[in-house]
Design brief:
By secondary structure, the protein is an all-alpha fold. It has a domain of about 70 residues. It is about 70% helix and about 0% strand.
């Protein structure tokens, strides 16, 4: 295994743990906002990617069939493509706002 691939794997595993919530809200009586569903969408995307990773690991250990791995990887790919498309639209909207005259 090349060092760059190993370093990329370590960086990715560190980034995965950064996405996990820290714990309960500091003020549990404060009204909670769902952020327009953005946090739920991010959570669903990370869940789909994690499910794809688990399926691939199960296949490598011989405890999963190829069909379930293909389904999980397709769902993960769709989730990532959707997230990238949304990100591109947000960046495009931001660029349009920047170009507006004051």
């Amino acid at each position: 295994m090349k060092f760059a691939a190993f370093q990329a794997a370590q960086t990715y595993s560190g980034a995965k743990t950064a996405l996990k919530p820290e714990g309960p809200s500091p003020n549990p009586t404060a009204p909670q906002s769902d952020g327009g569903g953005a946090f739920k969408a991010v959570h669903e995307m990370t869940s789909a990617v994690a499910q794809g990773e688990r399926a691939a690991q199960a296949y490598m250990t011989g405890s999963a069939d190829p069909h379930s791995v293909v389904e999980a990887m397709a769902a993960a790919e769709l989730a990532v493509e959707t997230a990238v498309t949304v990100r591109d639209k947000v960046v495009e909207a931001y660029q349009e706002l920047i170009r507006m005259p004051i």
